[in-house]
Fold each of these.
Amino acid sequence: MNFTEFKNEIDKVVCSYNSDTKEYTIKIIDFGVNVTGASNFLDLIDSKNKEVNQAREKVLAETENLDPAEEGYDEIVKMRNEVMSKPNLEESSDRSGIGSTVSPLLLTYNNTLTESVSLDEDFESLYQLVLTNIYNITEKSETNEVFSKKIEEADANEFLKKLNYRLNNTSNFIAANGRIGNASFVISNSSNKEKIENAQALNKSNRKITNIYDDRLLDNVIVTGRKAEESQPCVAFVYTVEDNKLFYEIINIGDKPENQYMSFEF
């Protein structure tokens, strides 16, 4: 894997920042804390609240007719309750003394890139390191317990329906809990390729999902996540090229970046 191929692959799962020098600065809009400020972010806040409310509506629509006897009922109800109790951004902001002029906080990250690899080397191991950082951050997520119950593979068709249902719910949960948007990628062992693609074929939404296969994952584990844009909480790859070397750092940035990722067993 050369650098161009490496860059194309990581851009499917992480936000990459190309710094002009080894000293870098990144600013992140933080929606997770109570702050006051100017009104120039109000439209952005309204937009994010709309996305969160849409995700809530999807969760309600998909769970309102559940049978209490259905397998996994308790964990789905727990997930629904957590999503529905999530406050809107405006409701969680401190407006004291300034009326409706609410702004998120801007977080600033400064550091120096020290890790390096020659541009002539194979980038496969670095690509795997990026994926490993995503796997590690899912372990910090409080949301993984919501989907702790495994999907039993008794009937093939029923299994695909349950897997599709689980993939949809994890995506909606990321949208509501992470406050930005739905999951954009799925990572699993290549032995699950047919199962995942057949389950996704049952999905009636037009949402685009990128499937990535990594055989280091156990064959009963699926990782889902949202590929962030600049200034959003995420696993980020920061780099610069100097003297035929790639200097880089892989960091978790923003407020609760783990809420942009989930993993579950099936």
Note: Helices lie at 3-10, 42-63, 73-84, 124-138, 156-178, 193-200.
Amino acid sequence: MPIGRRVEPMTDTAEFGSNEYRVMRDGAGSLGIFDFYSGGAAGEGWSDSPISPYGETLDDLRADLHNMILALNKPVLDTETGKPWQGVADA
């Protein structure tokens, strides 16, 4: 069963596996970018709320924003299940 809980990025790759940014839609229909973890012993997990870009330098911030933009090209996930959202796709 997926776990919708806040986990710190890459704290334990054995437990949380790999992480990536994913666009997720909540029950109210709002979209946000979330930290999404899969492949670890803990199963799937994601941040409990949308995240903001972060960087200690301008280059770090630029890279973080770039990775968030890449998430826009992947299927939208449901915040309740972590599975692809089954509603009508936005253009």
Note: The two ends are 30 Å apart (CA to CA).
Amino acid sequence: MKKAESEKKHPNKTALDKLERGNPNSTIYKSRPNKSPNPTDAQIQAGETGNPHSVDNDMRKPASHNPTNAEINAGETGNPASVDYGKDPAAVKKEQ
């Protein structure tokens, strides 16, 4: 049975419902995009690499470079609590 031309398309809609038509953020909007699929475990693990709060943090590879005392002291030259405060980092590196 075909609708008559004079018959309204949405006769039982309230004024608020009519305002919601065409709003992609509406909960009743039929044409809104579907949500993205849930990430796989591999995608989650890849996103957590380098995160110290991750449960897999203890499985990470240790750093291959251990800084020397001279490198640590050179990095501390900008710290007011350091004994090397105010010194040139290159000069501190050469001290030891």
Note: The chain has four helices and no strands.
